[in-house]
Amino acid sequence: MKRRVLASLVLGAVAALSLTGCLSSSDAPAGQETDVNAAWLDDGRIIALVTTGSSSCVPVADSAEINQDGALAVELSLPDADQPCTADLAPRATLVPVPEGVDPFQDLVIWATGEGYYGDVTLPGVSGLAGPGGSTDYEPTAGWTQQQGQFVILTWGSSSCVPVVETSEVTADAEVTVTFQEPPANQACTMDMAPRTNFGFADGLSGVADVQLVLSGDSFDQTIPIYGTSD
Length: 231
Known about the structure:
This protein is mainly β. It has one helix at residues 2-15; strands at 32-33, 37-41, 46-53, 60-66, 72-77, 90-97, 108-114, 117-123, 141-144, 150-157, 165-172, 175-180, 194-201, 212-217, 220-227.
């Protein structure tokens, strides 16, 4: 029960975004254009917004709302302006709660703006997703992005013990297996329940629908669908 209460607090913090100052797709954005990708997660209740940059400084969503053009406008910022960032370039997933009124069955245009940059992406609709509202069941979910072969994995657990992907490979005509590293035996983890993200990659499945994802290693031993279709 304590873990579920903590998880609810985490979700509440994610959902409590400001609903002001969002970009309209009819505006002329300022700054440098950057690539943005996105994926449905958590049965359509969450979108992973994928940008590229320092792996140690994942942007957070300051605001997210449907603008006058029907697009989802998201404003991003660094979690702490004083936080030192590693000099690598890696995909990072910012979790954005899906606002009420969004139909995950339909394509969704997303505009993202940050400090000196902007980007947009169309997230294809996926039938069968519950969409915004309701509460998570804290089960792993995964969704394809618009980058060929890339998908985002969402798991729930200790924020200080994020699973580490060891391998990601195609294991059948419509199946991908992701194996996580086994954690150290003496690993100490905080007792919160937080959303954690990983990336998987699977070549050769472009256009294949209903791909299943086998999760193994660490504490995982289950099969889940990957929402959408790989480009």
